[in-house]
Amino acid sequence: MSFFAYKNGEMHAEGVALATIARQVGTPFYCYSAAALRASWQEFADAIKGTNARICYALKANSNLAVIKLFGDLGAGADIVSVGEMRRALAAGIRADRIVYSGVGKKASELMAALEAGIGQINVESSAELEVLNAVAGQLGKKADITIRVNPDIDAGTHEKITTGRKENKFGIDIDLATEAFAKAASLPNLRVVGVAMHIGSQLTSLSPYRDAIVRVRSLIQELRTAGHRIDRFDIGGGLGIVYADEQPPSISDFMQVVGKETAGLGCELTFEPGRRLVGEAGVLVSEVILVKPGVSKTFVIVDAAMNDLIRPTLYDAWHDIVPVREPRPDAATICCDIVGPICESGDYLAQNRDLPPLSAGELIMVRSAGAYGAVMASSYNSRPLAPEVIVDGTRFAVTRPRPTIDEMISTERIPPWMVQAGQATKG
Ligand SMILES: Cc1ncc(COP(=O)(O)O)c(C=O)c1O
Ligand SMILES: N[C@@H](CCCC[NH3+])C(=O)O
Description:
2 domains; 8-stranded parallel beta barrel; binds pyridoxal-5'-phosphate; binds lysine
């Protein structure tokens, strides 16, 4: 079921026409469907029913407070990678003990903030981090519950910039060095090892890398137990893919079956950290055509969303489906065009060589599957205000993060006093 569909010739998010939102909020804007978010959550919830497993939503995919709150209310914990994300999870009402803190480079000050807040699990990724965390926990008179994230050296078969489980990637401790790390952790008085973690990459469309990685980590768990370590939790990470073009990602229930089969008999509580799969298809980016520029070799449709709003096309050569907000006639001719933004970079495009019905200035377009790694990766390059975020729920909609004004963007900056004085002197 699509939560973004044409009704009466106009693209709607659930019961709200995108053109209505555009009139009120301006363009570009991100729009999320609450029903779509609930539906993707439900798929996970159904698949883990009756098992010893929990879902910690990976905030990095979309850290909009309303989105986090929606999942939190449905029972999600959170997977965070910074104190900023921790603050967001807590502000949205997720209990600290349901938060897992991942990340390859946590600073002592961040670890301290996490322990002070009572974060439930810290996934440690290096021997150096074990020592720092032990020292910080000691200062606070606390014992930190940790897992050690291992790097199982498995090719996830995804884009090279978002694969994380090969030994040449910076993440986790090499599985071959893991026993040493666990022994070290056990010797540190302020740490309590509760399990093992992995995360092999993002936008995975095949289950075999998960299977292969779990098989490796499973034998590690058995070895660790033989060596006397208590391993109660197995954090599988996130990574499940979504549809951008014609991918066929596995269903959540097939994924859970594979995980269930490969972890059977281990007696571990499982943690899943899905991000993209929960939010990706539940969000779109809406933009207005500024002008159309026919060229000698191609036609450029210049829109008011740019690489600063959605960086995925230029960063990962990612393909996002783009459709006009006003439904084209079924027999409408198409033209091949590049959909580009106003930024001063040739890499500023949302799509290249795309066949679309002819578009004209003032028309709206919708970029699909933009709910994950869209707004969170936006910048204000070229001093462009961050696009606002809107959530639709049935026939209601609300702006959850407004567009900042230019004044708000520049008002926190300061010109050093000596420059102000020098300027006055020059003028004088
Ligand atoms: C440790 C960890 N967990 C979870 C995720 C979420 O990944 P995804 O959005 O692909 O589900 C990531 C990002 O890839 C991650 O680094
Ligand atoms: N930012 C990436 C995903 C990175 C996953 C984080 N470890 C994307 O847009 O596909």
